[in-house]
Amino acid sequence: MPAVPVDVVGIGNAIVDVFAQADDAFIAANGLNKGSMTLIDARRAEELYARMGPAREISGGSCANTMAGIAALGGKAAYIGKVRDDQLGQVFRHDIRSAGVRFDTPPAKDGPPTARSLIVVTPDAQRTMNTFLGACVNLGPEDVDETLVASAAITYLEGYLWDRDRAKQAFLAAARVAHAHKRKTSLTLSDPFCVDRHRDSFLKLVHEHIDILFANELEIESLYQVKRFDEALQAVRGHCEIAVLTRGPKGSVIVSGDEVHVIDPAPLSRLVDTTGAGDLYASGFLWALSRGFGLARCGRIASIAAAEVIQHYGARPEADLKALVREAVA
After folding, report:
1. 1 occurs within a structural domain
2. CB–CB of 232/201 below 8 Å?
3. Which residues constitute the domain of residue 20?
């Protein structure tokens, strides 16, 4: 029986996010790298969790946040990611499904526990992430639901997952299925440290398999090893169908062939927590693109979604995104 068509299916690291607020003294006392993401082992995860204050747990991971944002906009989203058959795995499954995202990947019955990211948010809205990858790194090509990918208008791949060979095989398998059914593929570079580790293979992936690339300013400059954003913009032109380049408070730039759209950031009433800004930008852009909107309009909708999520704690929308988009782009 064919799968019900979806707008976007995401493939990424299935992680439970654990959020807590703390001050800079906590960051210093625990030797944390403020404002960045650090990979940690199981022992360090347990140690740091014991020291954190009251926390909130929610299904997370960059790609999962993007799929939840698409669902919040009224789109049909699905997710492929690996969890263990443990308590946090149950938290992830229940939470992402309750957000309206289809999630059918079977849990692992052995191996490492479900991944978790311990996120400390300081008063200046910076988030410091310490991530134990656990079960999610064992995702492989056998976990790719080919019928689901074939039914999706866009398959969205999370760069964080590109570390393991089996994950690379899963990405390539999904891209082949998508293109065989005349669907689009998309990739987020995720983080400059991912680009630094995998530059050559990322370039090959983008040039040969990706239609829509998401990158922030640092990531795209690192990918093409240039020092200026304008140089990176020119380098990426023509290497994929659409390049979506975010620049934080300077907005974003969307490049497609001869088209260049400079998108202003959406207005903010306050800045609370930058967690999920890029994830929700991708939500808005992919949702709008799957509906056939022009690139400039896709960018405006993406900026609205990103602005909403940084005005409160956590990486999932709290306001009615559908209403915000209707008001802004009607």
Report:
1. no
2. no
3. 6-329
State percent of the chain over pLDDT 90. Answer: 80
**CA distance linking residue 114 with residue 93, whole number of Å:** 11
At 175, which helix (H) or strand (E)? Answer: helix 165-180
Do 314 and 95 meet the contact criterion of CB atoms below 8 Å apart? no
With a cut of 70, say whether residue 3 has pLDDT above it.
no
Predicted confidence at residue 36, as pLDDT, reads: 82
Straight-line distance from the first to the last Cα atom of the chain, in angstroms, rounded to the nearest whole number: 38
d(CA 117, CA 44): 11
Residue 167 belongs to a domain with what CATH number? 3.40.1190.20
For the chain, give percent helix, strand, coil, nearest 5. 45, 25, 30
Rounded to the nearest 5 degrees, what angle is found at the Cα of 155, between the Cα atoms of 153 and 157?
Answer: 160
pTM for this one? 0.90
Q: Is 65 helix (H, G, I), strand (E, B) or coil?
A: helix
Reported for 217-225, long-range contacts at CB under 8 A and 24+ positions apart, including other chains, are: 217/245, 217/246, 217/247, 217/248, 218/192, 219/189, 219/190, 219/191, 219/192, 219/194, 219/195, 220/189, 220/245, 222/192, 222/195, 222/196, 223/189, 223/195, 223/199, 225/199
Half-sphere exposure of 290 (CA within 13 A, CB side): 28
CA angle (133, 149, 92) in 5-degree steps: 35
Domain for residue 259, yes or no? yes
The type of residue at 65 is N
pLDDT for 1 equals 39
Instruction: Report if residue 221 sits inside a domain.
Output: yes
89, 44 contact by CB (below 8 A): no
Scanning the structure block, which residue is given the tokens 């995401």?
Answer: 10
**Res. 278: pLDDT tops 80:** yes
Number of domains in the chain: 1
Q: Rounded distance, CA 79 to CA 157, Å?
A: 10
CA distance 110 to 296: 46
242 pLDDT more than 50:
yes
